[in-house]
Amino acid sequence: MGISEENPGYGDNDLVVPSNWTVTFVEGQLAVSCTVAPKNVETDAITNLYVGITNPTDSSQFYCSGSVTAIHGSPPSGNTMTGFSQTYLFDPKVHGGSVRSVIFGYVQTSLGSSSFMFHQLFTVG
């Protein structure tokens, strides 16, 4: 697996820190996971996290997605969320050796809810 650092800005990306971004392709199954934490751990909280994988040359070709949402009320300040998704729809022989992972979500701040979105390009194989 290779990784290309690319995080085009969208929303309030400066409010969160993504980590442990992992893509695996084992026995025909493509899986991605990522953990997101608020930068301001004293006041901010992650409320929703969506993780997906798409074709880097055709963003309308979405292979999979998964989501995690705070279930009961407001999550505590400084919380983290880990998102995960997996699929058998991706085939490197058909789709090529690259996939783009996308994480999107919301962080609750003292000023209200703000969105964030990051992209990461991975080479499979």
Structural class, please?
A: mainly beta
CATH class: Mainly Beta
Per DSSP E runs of 2 or more residues, the count of β-strands stands at: 8
Tell me the number of structural domains: 1
The strand line-up of the biggest sheet is 1-8-7-4-5
Could you please say which CATH topology applies here?
A: Immunoglobulin-like
**Helix and strand pattern:** EEEEEEHEE
Poorly predicted runs: 1-5
Give the CATH architecture.
Sandwich
Indicate the percent of residues in helices.
under 10%
Explain what this protein looks like in three dimensions.
The protein is 3% helix and 62% strand. The chain is elongated and about 50 Å long. Residues 1-5 have low confidence and may be disordered. The chain has one domain (2-123): Immunoglobulin-like. It is mainly beta and 125 residues long. Strand 2 and strand 3 form a beta hairpin.
